[in-house]
Amino acid sequence: MSSSHAHTSYLDVKDKYQFKPLNWILSVDHKRIGVMYLYTAFAFFIVALLIGVTIKLEKMFPGQQIYGPEFYNKLFTTHSVIMIFLFIIPTMPSIFGNFFLPIMIGAKDVSFPRLNLVSYWIYVLGAGIAVGGIVLGSPTSLIGGADTGWTFTPPNSTLSGSAVSSTLLAAFILGWGTILTAINFIVTIHRMRAPNMKFLKMPLFVWTLYVTSWIQLIATPVVGITLMLQVMERFMPIGWFDPTKGGDPVLFQHMFWIYSHPAVYIMILPAMGAISEVITTFSQKAIFGYFSMVLSTVGIAAVGYFVWAHHMFLTGMSEVAQFVFSFFTFLVAIPTAIKVFNWTATLYKGSIKLDSPMLFAIGFLFNFSIGGFTGLFLGALNVDVQLHGTDFVVAHFHYTMFGGAGFGIFAAVHYWFPKMFGRIINEGVAKLSFFLVFIGFNVLYFPMFILGVYGMPRRYHDYVSRDFFDPIQKISSVGAMILATGVIIMVLNWIISGSRGKKASDNPWGGTTLEWKVETPPTLFNFDKVPTVVNDVYDYDAKGGLHG
Amino acid sequence: MSGHDHEEEQNHHEPTYGTPILVFIGLVALTCITVSSTVIKLSATASVLLAMTVATIKATLVVYFFMHLKYEKKYLGLFFAIPVIILVIIFLWTFTDYPFRVYN
Amino acid sequence: MSNNQDGAFFYLGTSPHVEHEDKEAAKFGMWLFLYTELLLFGALFLAYAVYRSIYPKEFEIAASHLDRTVGTVNTIVLLFSSLTVVIAIVAIQKGNKMLSAFMLILTMACAFTFLIIKTFEWKAKFDSGIFLVPQSNIGEASAVLSALPQGQQVFYGLYFVMTGLHALHVIIGIGIFIVILVFLFRDIIHKKDVVFLENSGLYWHIVDLIWIFLFPLYYLVV
Asked: How many other β-carbons are positioned within 10 Å of the β-carbon of residue C64?
């Protein structure tokens, strides 16, 4: 360990290259890589958010206002492809996992730092190809990317003239980036923990990163090859999924959802891990039921492999399959509910501080519960006949992925920002932005449950004017604008606080995990020497710093 | 400084030329068995089962000896079960659909 | 990583005589990557299983047009190449660099042989009018292929994609072994650090493993 780096933060390490960006683009420091992901991923998030607003603007009134159905299809496809593949899936692991995983386990970096950097370049490459498809379109369909939905269902995705192949190729490449990150994390957690840090002494965020990495490792190759088959099917009359050649389009859906259902657990688990960290810190109380949190994380991941075809109840699958998948869908709710219970129990009699990270965490609890409950509606076969393909589904997954994972991401930013950049986010503005985001979110999505029950199909550009539809659509669209305003204020707050905020101390929130015991921002190798882990991970009464 | 002690030579087993050669002979024998078994008149399901059983035995030999899993630390073998089990689940669960479809 | 004194900087290319800092980690990482290969091909085997259960007779008929002897020879060739790569590892662990290099070259020769045989197999199919053609060239696939019963069309589609993807992995394997051979001659791989060679061997065994399952499913259908 080089002591000349003793107190220089990772941000201030002496530049090697004259051309400044190279000192980041070629850096294998896990912290710098995490920050690069932060900038890239949030840039895409804002773009996709604005697309979402554009969608809601068109739907505010019946009849066509701004654009027609073809463009609408491209908009919602692009919105979902960016949000899923470029934002939610990578963000928690690649930003906060990269930055904090080594620190939280007492290591100086991940096991394969160069592979880590390569993973980032792969992410950028995949993103570039997706953007290329969006901006350039295809030979037969200029501008706008694919129009098939992110689910790329054949035969539509075989026959569509839009930029499907480039989007599929982009998704394929992005998948390999996440696989490499997953390998890195699994090996790091096994090989680089501080000597006393047994598995059951790891922070819950690390546990969720670990389990998520396994899901990514196992599930992603399946969709990778499936998407490649679909690309081939567009160019060659193979007939994998083409009934006129003996194929079965439902098989594509099986293979697609075998990944894409575990993918939603990839999206939510690390966010849940961050929520665990925030809730325990802002209650100044050890998480209730640490071991059951660990078990439920593993349980969600495992049972998550048994439920994929609940996205396919109406495809003509056998009734046996429908029964099996519905049954297991109800089962997977159990470990999830255990987590919600444990978080609530942690709050009980905790000394709660409602700073912005905690506000987002509580917002998470509210939103994710609604999302989870409405998933049960969809898992029930008879109800799903009515609700499949309606706005009810759209509301459900936005409550879980945005209200859940998204809010978890926002909580994580507010929580870890001081440690990452050495500055405090303006708390007043942060609280304001939280309320705008929370209220806007619920005004936007809750009415969509109602619309869905009343039969409003999803992915529809327009609707027939009706007494009760019209005002609900208007309210929902207004919610989108409130939400977008809140998000923009929130992100601007981060940017401005990043350069003008007050300097942060090492442990502004009173956390007990190792990242709060190192310098702010961390030095290049995180620790002067390997820390000795003595106490339980969430022991708020324990005294002592890095070495017991 | 990887935070790990230097117990890297976990396979204290002395490498030999003999074992791999024996394993290879076994693999060739199994190949001959599976090819010649095609003369036996079995039902479609039974012949697939037989072929897959032999293939699994061959695969086990490759993984256990050639890929050295026998001499590695236990966790490597345990984790190998994960993709295998997931694949089994994927196959079983997909086959809750196809054999039970009712076409009008 | 010991070759990053100032961690912020990136080295392209390995400097020789740098030991693997954590050999167990490198090996574990390789195994994890191989799990993805199992799942990648596993998904294709799933599609095969589904379609075979739908079209048992057509699969039987189509498979009878594949040459069983050729398939068996290819199987033996790959099994032998797995043996040679293991011997290569044992050899360098005993300090026998020349034997190790010879075994690696033999492995690559087997890989080439496999590919050549495969090329002839595919060519035979192309010559009989069965091949996959881009849509833009001909309105339909080869007329012969489209005239076949649907189940047989699906069979051939699966056959070309699965054996093609497998062959791609063989080609990549050859590329990897070339690099490994260079490492061996430059003493980057040596008696005390065989991790690169072991990992490349693991990759190669997975390629062999895939074929062990492909072979009966395509060539031994009765």
From this structure: 11
